[in-house]
Amino acid sequence: MKTPVGRNFSSDHVAPACEAIMSAVNQANEGSVTSYGGDDLTAQLQSVACDVFEKQVTVFPVASGTAANALALSQIVPAFGAIYCYEAAHIVTDEAGAPGFFTGGAQLVGFAASDGKIRPEQLTQAVLYAEDLGVHHVKPGAVTLTQATEWGTVYGLQEIAAISAVAKRHHLPMHMDGARFANALVSLGCTPAQATWKCGVDVLSLGATKNGALGAEAVIFFDPALALDFERRRKRAGHLVSKMRFVSAQLVAYLSNGLWLDNARHANAMAAALAQGIATVCGARLLQPVEANELFVALPESTVSSLEMQGFNFYRWPLNLTQSGVTIRLVTSYATPRADVDEFIAAAAALTPPR
Amino acid sequence: MKTPVGRNFSSDHVAPACEAIMSAVNQANEGSVTSYGGDDLTAQLQSVACDVFEKQVTVFPVASGTAANALALSQIVPAFGAIYCYEAAHIVTDEAGAPGFFTGGAQLVGFAASDGKIRPEQLTQAVLYAEDLGVHHVKPGAVTLTQATEWGTVYGLQEIAAISAVAKRHHLPMHMDGARFANALVSLGCTPAQATWKCGVDVLSLGATKNGALGAEAVIFFDPALALDFERRRKRAGHLVSKMRFVSAQLVAYLSNGLWLDNARHANAMAAALAQGIATVCGARLLQPVEANELFVALPESTVSSLEMQGFNFYRWPLNLTQSGVTIRLVTSYATPRADVDEFIAAAAALTPPR
Amino acid sequence: MKTPVGRNFSSDHVAPACEAIMSAVNQANEGSVTSYGGDDLTAQLQSVACDVFEKQVTVFPVASGTAANALALSQIVPAFGAIYCYEAAHIVTDEAGAPGFFTGGAQLVGFAASDGKIRPEQLTQAVLYAEDLGVHHVKPGAVTLTQATEWGTVYGLQEIAAISAVAKRHHLPMHMDGARFANALVSLGCTPAQATWKCGVDVLSLGATKNGALGAEAVIFFDPALALDFERRRKRAGHLVSKMRFVSAQLVAYLSNGLWLDNARHANAMAAALAQGIATVCGARLLQPVEANELFVALPESTVSSLEMQGFNFYRWPLNLTQSGVTIRLVTSYATPRADVDEFIAAAAALTPPR
Amino acid sequence: MKTPVGRNFSSDHVAPACEAIMSAVNQANEGSVTSYGGDDLTAQLQSVACDVFEKQVTVFPVASGTAANALALSQIVPAFGAIYCYEAAHIVTDEAGAPGFFTGGAQLVGFAASDGKIRPEQLTQAVLYAEDLGVHHVKPGAVTLTQATEWGTVYGLQEIAAISAVAKRHHLPMHMDGARFANALVSLGCTPAQATWKCGVDVLSLGATKNGALGAEAVIFFDPALALDFERRRKRAGHLVSKMRFVSAQLVAYLSNGLWLDNARHANAMAAALAQGIATVCGARLLQPVEANELFVALPESTVSSLEMQGFNFYRWPLNLTQSGVTIRLVTSYATPRADVDEFIAAAAALTPPR
């Protein structure tokens, strides 16, 4: 179902790959190279990532965000462990049980959070509860945060550090699901290092597919010791691809010359423009702060239907945050044209009764 | 840490085995018999269970309630499935991740329930949500109820039937964690058949250990077709014991001559007596209806400490239901002497300030 | 470690992607399309595969051959099952335990086979043994054949049919690991249908990466009923990629206009030329019949070292088939230049002492 | 199917429990005690085991030998690991895939061994092969020996030490499946310490059920550090039983006052008597050295049928070791009466044609 380039706010992975990344893939297609990551581009990726994160890191390209998350968690959580997370985190609702599969049965323990951000007190309480139940309960295993969150909000550095302080006290590694990490980074205006290991993140799932790649995600360990045998986990999950140059090429291009930030900056700007337009022009209610590239908006059913009929693509969100009307999600990407944003605002405004 | 027989309300499995069951074990200890369940007693168990449940059922003895629950669930839920349950069900909080292990990663999806009983609307909503998310979400797999519940309450037959109606509509098998099934049965005053397959239960974890056995639990399928290859699951989990006659002997005795009901009736009566005494004499607050053999009571910290120092055994419950004071759990068993109950009430009363 | 295009016989995935497939990927990079396989190219792939296999099939693109094999097996083998295979099959030696992981613990039961091809009698014997041991043994689950085999040989259609007859008699589904299926097809000179479902194959792992793709493999079910919920398995393994158009584009191009056969034909021809040259010019011993694109050759250590020093790439095979000397493996691909073949033969001949 | 006490050589677990152990169970049945192993008897078991093995060990009672083996292996082998063993070891043929289940997919790598005893060279070769294949292969994980073996032979201390030397060189822990450990011990005439940790064993599955218990097995770690979180694995597998006193009581009695050795000594003596009688009187061929309590004998089909019809119980072994005739297995136990042995010999002799 090819849809018009424009008017598609259903997700950031409906977009094609950006030129720079496509070009890198084409350039990688020359000559015989060692397979399974023994190629120059994969070595270069390793080096680029160390530069970008200002630290000796270990990078493992994989095929999807689900794989990145589940593999990362399986590395740090025992099969009899608990994974502490937001109760409607992507790993809980949208990965078909991947964390349970990859870890061999670890349990997701979710915390309520109206803005998608868990709080340090919730972690403290859960760990105390687990300690009280002892061997009968799953063992506290790891904490995972989504950045930017499932609700388009962004954890502040202090917020992450506060959670991390609790985690460290209980020897729990911290994972970050960074499917939209670049969008959060641009929103925070800090360095990649500040947004991760400097505030306590041990492992990052770094997304690129939603932000301009064809298909490339990576697991990044900030302490190489944590990555021991990780390559074996990746292999047995079928995520060690033979012609890895084509994945590494995407990630090298992504992290080079600020491409990832430029792409994310555009996406965020389009989201901000949408948010402002929707709020001010249409008077619609934004259900969450718009801090990255996702908007959750309350609209009357009639407005939503009409927008759909006009060819705008977006999701009616299954977790409805509003009593009257519909919660829709709008996502912008590096490829969202300004015109689409303006058209959407205009269309929504036209459907809005005068106040 | 052998404690005095009396004064121990910490759980129903601190008690020894009852005479009738111990005697059955001793009688089983004679002669060579075929191992792995090929013995007469195991055959007899099968027959006794069919009589008791008024149906052709299939019974599989196992070593623990955790094994019974996890094996039963693994039989009916795919590895990529969701198990719908109460959010603080025993399988969630006290089985160290067994359901995830046995199913190969299925996800526990818990519903809030102040009395431990989930509601049909919660199930409907969860299934709709899952259908909305499609392949990205865990597939609706099964429903499990604990009977009696973790809060000492008991599902009414209508309540079970209402949940079952939703489950059947969505082709979800129903499991019942009956670690305290006999206590619920006595409480309901109905037949085993009415309490299970007649209101839609497909598989039952039948507990005996808490109610007088040395160590014997069973998984009972009400539709033999559902049990296909279950014996292989039991075997690979290490729960096909070689000298099965000793487990079967316990279960035969348990289900014969109303022993299970007599034992449970006593336990429930002691709980009722405790409840009445605590409420009327001490004026303490019962935090849940006392419908089986467990009580949850709100007491001031000073009272609790003092009772502990006097040698009464019970748990300070980790899920505190009261803002001021402590939630304690008291459990009675077939072996609880009336004197213990009276002593507890007297001691608590003595610690209660005059109103 | 970029090596010269030529002289690399280490594997068929050291080659780049072929022009037609690279071009298809570039063409796919346009406009917004529905993600997760809701795009036109994925629909087209489905249709092309049905045409190619002359049957209603179901196709699932995945990221690697390991994923294809392990996912396919997990769909047809229970966690307590046996997977019958060649004892040194790729799934046994080179997938880091993926079958055990994906199936939740199924057991690989390997048969000896000097040419990599298992025999129907071995399957019969193994199933009888399993039946004798009953519940104590893993349940017969499935049979898997590698085509072309790990030793570069090719199962004849009669050979497959004979194994399939035993499998069907015992209700065992048949899987084919077709990482080099196109090479086998060209070797057999038959239709894809004849090489698969017409001789009893139920599921095929179809490789494209080794034969000209960037990175694209597929699981193909010849009976759509067998594929029930397979998409959930793929998702939870992280193999449902969001921008699937880029994988589907490769597979569509691969299966269209005979590209896969042309590529394989060239690879096979180069292997045949190498084989003939090595045997006749150098007098070296071919350790297996050369029926696809792999050669296993016995050479003296001095010859092997010298070839390595001259820049020829190949593997010293860990399963040494010769008492005196070294077993090397040579692999040709769609991209192997005739000049490389000639140079290798000349170099090897120059190192051969006159007879 | 209750069979006469005598004449049953089908296995050592067809016997009832011995008096001393039954008595211990009865004595344990008094008073309230802390559940889940917090009782005195479990503490005593810990202490008795340390005495018996002359070392600080950690003991975990479980319900079956399959559980003991699979839990022990899951503790020491990663999910992506290889378990090196005899190719027809009990864990391979008779545990329904338990090792794969408990480890989350680890792979059994079996070595040929006509007498059931693997050799150090086989281990060396397998590890080198694994290292050659690197990340593509399962990681060398652990070695497991069965003592006494599946063929009724016994590893000598030097043989174990030689395997252990290779294992230690490659950092592989050593597990011993001691389902019939007491029989081996009596056969070796050495101390428990000499037979285990002094020759390199790290973890022992200690069987008691086959040698006089009702149902009691234990996992014993010779280095407590190796046992970290093992109790959580046991719990989530459903093998932490609530009324553990009844299992611990059996094991305490078993290891006290030499009961285990006395029981095993009788079983071995009966096996030796059978062996001598069969060999000398009947001229039948013993297919393996009789070093513990199992015999494998080659007999003509007519003799075997006739013995069966006379009411002797034994197995026709599925792995037939003889070209002409049948391989039968005879097992003796602590409870085998001398009269049974004599009757069997007499019956077999009567069926033997004069030479």
Concise overview:
The structure is a homotetramer of 355-residue chains. By secondary structure, chain A is an alpha/beta fold.
Q: How would you describe this structure to a colleague?
A:
Four copies of one chain form a homotetramer. With 355 residues, chain A is of the alpha/beta class. Chain A folds into two domains: 19-257, Type I PLP-dependent aspartate aminotransferase-like (Major domain) (Aspartate Aminotransferase, domain 2), CATH 3.40.640.10; 260-350, Aspartate Aminotransferase, domain 1 (Alpha-Beta Complex). Chain A has helices at 19-28, 40-53, 65-76, 90-93, 98-103, 120-133, 157-169, 181-188, 192-195, 230-236, 245-255, 259-282, 301-309, 338-350; strands at 32-33, 58-62, 81-86, 107-111, 139-146, 174-178, 203-207, 217-221, 285-286, 294-299, 315-316, 326-331. The longest helix of chain A has 24 residues, at 259-282. The two termini of chain A are 38 Å apart. The mean pLDDT of chain A is 95. Chains A and C meet through helix 1, strand 1, helix 3 and helix 10 of A and strand 1, helix 1, helix 3 and helix 9 of C.
